[in-house]
Specification:
Layout lengths: L5 E5 L8 H11 L11 H12 L5 E7 L2 E12 L3 E9 L8 H10 L6 E7 L3 H9 L3 E6 L8 E7 L8
Parallel strand pairs: 4-5
Antiparallel strand pairs: 1-2, 2-3, 3-4, 5-7, 6-7
Length: 165
């Protein structure tokens, strides 16, 4: 159920307004990965600093009654061609209610690029199923850094119409 959600867009200059809340949300959404050094909040913060520095960085946040329930963000990977969807995360007590889909659509619908790509954990069955349902197609296996696990790389043609992908 996504009734009553309020969405806001942030860029690299305005995202600091929710930075601390977003880091707490990351920790909450990755509790199942505790002990895996790739999924620490310190690593997330380090990667986020680099991601937000890219051209075309944008973040969409979902709130209800003032509480941050989810975010989705990415950046232009290849100008005019490809947008990198870096993260979609929703508070654990609000997952499976359509919030991730709304964040996905809010972020990607206005993008001018021709396609979006993302990396998803191979063992993340709920995310894999959602992306497939939303029209994403697997194009390969990647290991973006030496310390990272292997991910499935997915691609989605853009533009999308909100609520249709």
């Amino acid at each position: 159920m996504t009734d009553g959600l309020q969405f806001a867009r942030y860029d690299a200059h305005t995202v600091d307004a929710l930075y601390d809340e977003m880091v707490r949300l990351y920790a909450d959404t990755h509790e199942d990965m505790a002990g895996n050094s790739f999924y620490t909040t310190m690593r997330f913060e380090s990667f986020f600093v680099r991601q937000r520095a890219h051209h075309g960085f944008e973040l969409v946040a979902a709130r209800k009654d003032g509480r941050l329930l989810g975010v989705a963000f990415g950046f232009t990977e290849i100008p005019g061609e490809q947008y990198a969807l870096c993260e979609i995360m929703v508070a654990p007590d609000h997952q499976r209610r359509g919030i991730a889909k709304r964040l996905h659509d809010e972020l990607l619908a206005p993008r001018p690029e021709h396609r979006a790509d993302l990396y998803v954990r191979k063992d993340n069955a709920p995310a894999q199923a959602a992306y497939k349902k939303w029209g994403w197609t697997k194009i390969g296996d990647v290991q973006p850094t030496p310390e990272s696990p292997n991910f499935d790389e997915l691609v989605l043609p853009l533009p999308i119409a909100p609520g249709t992908a």
